Amino acid sequence: MKYIQSIQNPQIKQWKKLLTKKEREKTNTYILEGFHLVEEALHYRDDIIEIIVSEEADLPAYWDVSDISITRVTPEISRIISDTETTQGIFAICQIRNATTKDLTGKSYLLLDGVQDPGNLGTMIRTADAAGIDMILLGKGTADIYNPKVLRSAQGSHFHVEFLSGNLQEWIPKLKAANVPIYGTALENGIPYKEVQPEPSFALILGNEGNGVSKEVLSLTDKNLYIPIFGKSESLNVAVAAGILMYYFKN
After folding, report:
1. Torsion, Cα of 182, 98, 244, 213 (10° steps)
2. DSSP label at 198?
3. Of the CATH numbers 3.20.20.10, 3.30.1330.30, 3.40.30.10, 2.40.50.140, which one belongs to the domain with range 2-95?
4. Torsions phi, psi of 171, nearest 5?
């Protein structure tokens, strides 16, 4: 077990940099924070490079960390590398999973077109996991799934769902070629979602919080759907809308 006391240690600066997308992409690694997320990562231990634990925290006795590098740090260092106001004092440095294939596998898909809010993205990932969605396709402008806020909102579901990042306009024709129905979400020229009979295979497209799904992507869909509003609210949060639709189509 290593022990780091100095906040000037170069390793501390490196861990802190992992809170930025640029450094995550450069090193192909990311940082997890909190007991629950680190415990979930231990089920996929090949992803873990190192566990960092504050002097004020203790590793649970039932965790098997015999083959994992452990570094103890001071509470001050723990606060420096934390992305939360009150840290639990436990972190894991993990390897980013690179997709081994560009093939679209599975029957159910969630396509995200410029979903920018990390909390929304994490909630959608968690809900997709719960609903049994096979794959999430992350279009341009969508937040980084390894953003600390996304990781906290997803609560470990990024370990359970397959992801691909790229151009939705390239993937949609491939899904159509595989006979996967493509459903966009839009009020204009849309129909109430319950007018569509769920099928075993489907792809749902959710868009940017302010602008919705882009016109270019909507032009490629088979049908565009909307969720009726019965009260006085103008719209639903995109993560809530995604949850309603995913569970309806997975029924």
Report:
1. -50
2. P
3. 3.30.1330.30
4. -80, -35
Amino acid at 168: L
Consecutive H or E run containing 16: helix 10-17
Sign, Cα dihedral of 78, 26, 152, 155? negative
Is the CATH code 3.40.50.10860 the one for domain 108-249? Answer: no
- Sequence-distant (≥ 6) Cβ neighbours of residue 71 within 8 angstroms: 1, 2, 3, 4, 11, 50, 51, 52, 53
CA angle centred on 44, ends 164 and 64, rounded to 5°: 165
In the block, residue with structure tokens 């579901």: 157
User: 34: alpha, beta or left, given left = phi > 0 and alpha = psi -120 to 50?
Assistant: left
Beta-carbon count within 10 A of 135 CB: 21
Global pTM? 0.94
Please say if the pLDDT value at position 103 is more than 80.
no
Is the per-residue pLDDT at 102 higher than 80? no
Give the torsion sign (CA, 134, 138, 143, 145): positive
The DSSP bridge pattern shows strands 90-95 and 29-33 to be antiparallel
The yes-or-no verdict on residue 61 having pLDDT over 80 is yes
Q: Is 124 helix (H, G, I), strand (E, B) or coil?
A: helix
Specify the pLDDT at position 101.
Answer: 55
